[in-house]
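so im writing up the methods section and need the Aldehyde dehydrogenase family protein record in one place, dumping it here so i stop losing it
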Amino acid sequence: MTAVDESRTLETTATPGFDPAPRKMLIGGEWVDAVDGDSFDTVDPATERVLTTVPRGRAADVDRAVRAARAAFAPDSPWRRMSPAERGRIIHRIGDLILEHADELALIESLDNGKPMFYARHADLPLTADLFHYMSGWATKIEGNTIPFSSAAPGQFLSFTTKEPVGVVGQIIPWNYPVMMASWKLAPVLAAGCTVVLKPAEQTPLSVLRLAELIQEAGVPDGVVNIVTGDGEAGAALAAHPDVDKIAFTGSTEVGRLIVQAAAGNMKKVTLELGGKSPNIVYADADLDKAIATSANAIFFNQGESCIAGSRLYVQRSVFDQVLEGIREEAKKIRVGRGIDEGTQMGPLVSAEQLDRVLGYVGTGREEGATVYSGGSRIGDQGFFMEPTILTDTEPQMRVVAEEIFGPVLVASPFDDLDDIAVAANDTPYGLAAGVFTKDVAKAFTTASAIRAGTVWINTWNVIDAALPFGGYKQSGWGREMGREVLENYLETKTVIAELS
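--- predicted struct ---
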């Protein structure tokens, strides 16, 4: 059995350092309730107790936020008149404030999402701050080009391009990395000079609302950043709103398709960072101790609630049993418990719905002929805890192999040679990430080249950086997050031509 923290406190008592007061939304620089006064509970997934209440935004609230963002984007607004250097300083200040309040944000993130507070504090929050720091430098480096005419005599025309902010942006983020996903959206949109309406996931709105307070404190003018809380109804209204110029969504491929349909009304620009079913390939010549430990982390980190989870494990047949047993031993050592408890390595899944979904996939795997090699069950009867799980004897057509589960469930299969594994790795509608473990440099890069995925790790996993573009092939999305490339999501290119003679 996986190690479980039996000391978890399940009483519905207040958590020190957390304010249970009802929250409000940020619209036009003011903290407001929903227009109709409706609200919903946000729940601690470790105890199933209510943390606080949050406004349930609907179409009227989205419209109010879009109008505020449009006003803040007016040519004579403080935001549009601000110099790029000043804008960059404000964005950098947001990063500083995140680091100053990292302990508080990590507590909120752990309570609302369930993830271990240690990982939120030492992974999510530093990466969140770094993204704002990195993007702050781009505010002064958004440039066009002077382009000589190809069909006219020199000196007849002067032609150049400029880069301009796309306008009002709608952004929708998921619940697995709430504050970090908010930074992936907000930092580049601010660097580009746009204004934004952001909707956090209904399961995890609290850290984003606290981030919005820090954004205000940093000096972002009223109406530039607006946060509307709510469920899918608010997200649909934002995606379809006729005065939104661009929509950016991170979430499931299924919902991504709905976003595209909703955005078609006014042909708004769309970028999507969607699901994955990432192959993790271990060759017999790999450093097996490292491959085992890293492969376990690739699937069980963040409870497996990650679009880049290494959820499909392919191991060369001669070492398959050794690697599989090693990962099972790693899984047994994982300490499962409340995210706020010291020593917790894996928290609960985010909601009862998600726990039911993941357990349902395990049941489907059994019905289709897979073997539960390790785990496979819920832990306890309070909180949404699940054992780290490994399935073997799987076939490509099985749902557990073909579909994104988004939980701590690994499907493992042996392979024989490079040709076999390249075909198996690419036999998926997704193409977000992949990994290769081998000591052979040529084999590593040959395999990486053969895999159709936006990120390929070699002898590592889960390594990201603000400077590196992130996104997927195929049904894993459109466009890229982070790096220089993300700015193109939020910029228009204007060509100017002047006749000189």
